[in-house]
Design goal:
12 strands, BirA Bifunctional Protein, domain 2, 7 helices, five-stranded antiparallel beta sheet, 298 residues, seven-stranded mixed beta sheet, SH3 type barrels, alpha+beta
């Protein structure tokens, strides 16, 4: 009897992924910044964030409760299609294969203060995609990238979003942080997007998902490590240059603050909103939803 087992063939679509996405070159660039970093591309996955969170949980179980340094390497997971893509506050993230870039990066972080991380991520992504001044890509607090458009009702249209989730280790200080990113590369219709939808090809006509990944992945890794060292203060000025809400009238869902005028962010990334009675309020991520009302005064 022949006991030799033949490995199941890898589907052609999956086999072609590393070359189509330039994985060897990208991984080499990223490993120059962070040795042992792993890059993986999948045809389809439920959610890149959920997948990496599950892997982090598995690594934690395997390490055991007494391990202070769990065996979790920095990972970049890209999916051409997500069947359960998620945005902030449980919203669905709409993405189309080829027309969108969806990926997550998971790494261990131990900053002194986590406040403002989503803003620092937005700065890193925007600067990589749009280094020109004045910038075309703006940042809408706390986690969206918008393309400025004077003809749009809100002064711009949504280009992308960021979803950050963390899971802790027994050591307490260091956490695995999973940063999910979704970017519209080509024009696509999203009926639920009341702000309108923008695409990267509007400012970069030759853009592809793979080319966009090659730009943003190294910048994201460097930006997050800078945040770990310096906190939000290291990018506060850069964020202010792209702040979509600065000086605009806004509405919020925070109790006692139905509306006001946005006055930038403070040193830890909290949004500052001055109510009609002159009181200055601090809004922190996860507590409110803010929508710009351009052309109105508070």
């Amino acid at each position: 009897m022949n006991n030799t087992h033949t490995a199941a063939p890898v589907p052609q679509a999956q086999a072609d992924l590393p070359q189509r996405w330039g994985v060897p070159t990208l991984q080499q660039r990223l490993q120059a910044l962070e040795p042992h970093l792993e890059v993986e591309v999948m045809v389809s996955v439920g959610s890149t964030n959920s997948t990496l969170l599950e892997r982090a949980a598995t690594a934690s179980r395997q390490a055991g409760p007494s391990s202070a340094c769990p065996p979790f390497r920095t990972r970049l997971l890209v999916a051409e299609s997500q069947t359960q893509g998620r945005g902030r506050q449980g919203r669905r993230w709409h993405a189309s294969p080829g027309a969108s870039l969806t990926f997550s990066m998971a790494l261990t972080l131990a900053p002194q203060d986590w406040s403002g991380l989503s803003l620092a991520v937005g700065v890193a992504l925007a600067q990589a995609l749009d280094p020109a001044q004045p910038p075309s890509i703006a940042l809408k607090w706390p986690n969206d990238l918008w393309l400025r458009d004077a003809n749009a009702p809100a002064g711009g249209r949504k280009l992308g979003g960021v979803l950050i989730e963390t899971t802790g280790w027994a050591s307490g200080k260091e956490r695995v942080c999973v940063i999910g990113v979704g970017l519209n590369v080509q024009a696509q219709a999203v009926l639920e997007a009341s702000s309108g939808v923008a695409s990267l090809q509007e400012i970069w006509p030759q853009a592809s998902a793979a080319a966009a990944l090659a730009r943003v992945a190294p910048a994201l890794l460097q930006g997050v490590r800078q945040f770990e060292r310096d906190g939000f203060a290291g990018v506060q000025t850069a964020f202010a240059q792209r702040d979509l809400l600065q000086g605009q009238a806004v509405t919020t869902t925070q109790a006692g603050l139905p509306g006001g005028r946005a006055e930038g962010v403070d040193g830890v990334g909290a949004l500052l909103v001055r109510s009609p009675d002159g009181t200055l309020h601090r809004l922190v991520g996860g507590e409110v939803s803010v929508r710009p009302l351009f052309g109105r005064v508070s």
